From TrEMBL:
InterPro entries attached to this UniProt entry: Glyco_hydro/deAcase_b/a-brl, NODB_dom, Polysacc_deacetylase_ArnD
Claim: Hydrolase is one of the keywords in the record: yes
Protein name: Peptidoglycan N-acetylglucosamine deacetylase
Annotated NodB homology domain residues: 51-240
Species in which this protein is naturally found: Anaerostipes rhamnosivorans
Lineage top rank: taxon: Bacteria
Signal keyword on record: yes
Taxon lineage: Bacteria, Bacillati, Bacillota, Clostridia, Lachnospirales
Amino acid sequence: MKRKTYFAVVCALFFIGFILRYAADHSDGLFIASQKEGESGLMADSKITNKKVYLTFDDGPSENTDEILDILKKNKVKATFFVVGKQTEKARKQYQRIVLEGHTLAMHSYSHNYDQIYSSVDAFGKDIKELQEMLYEITDVKPTIYRFPGGSSNSCAGNIKPYIEYINKEGLLYFDWNALSGDAINFNLSPQQLNKNILNDVKKQKVSIVLMHDLAEAENTVKSLDSLIKTLKKDGYQILPITKYTQQIHHVSVDK
Ligand SMILES: [Zn+2]
């Protein structure tokens, strides 16, 4: 073999060896990369959806608040708590925990006393301010989202419109609901029945605001919650906390 040819063969073998070695070193990475792309592609197909559910809990804090928060945390889900005014040390910690764990702390009146709240717009406003200031002092967050006791369609307020005008004037937002479990109508409904009621409503619409209660008596709401969240996720719903950008559901409204 001539010297030039010998040199060319050695170079070629060296080059082929280099290519083979490079391929061996990087094949796992290439495989993993393509596998990951495949996974994210699958996720894009099955998980991203426009169907939204907002879980809301009225009337807390209560004996059940911490357990509700534990279940939400375990399932990595954020919700909205429409709270009333309570001054106990335990309640203060629960308001703080709601905020610290990323949920929306929203207002549901200080007293929850219909006769008092709906006696006049002045009384209504004082009640809101009392709750808002108390929550700000405890959590450093000034809530701006409200739910009328009984909803905006309640029969106790008489004409609700002046109260809605007050909410609008103060730059607050109010949210009613379009799905409910019935947990405060009958505390004996089974966890399965509560979830059935919610899912019946939820499947009829793209955006659902679900009314539940954070009340000591509503134990079956706590028992049903883990299964509700897992079913909603399996069926492709996004579970989100209410914010000022959330599509508002109003039973009664007035033009701004
Ligand atoms: Zn209530």
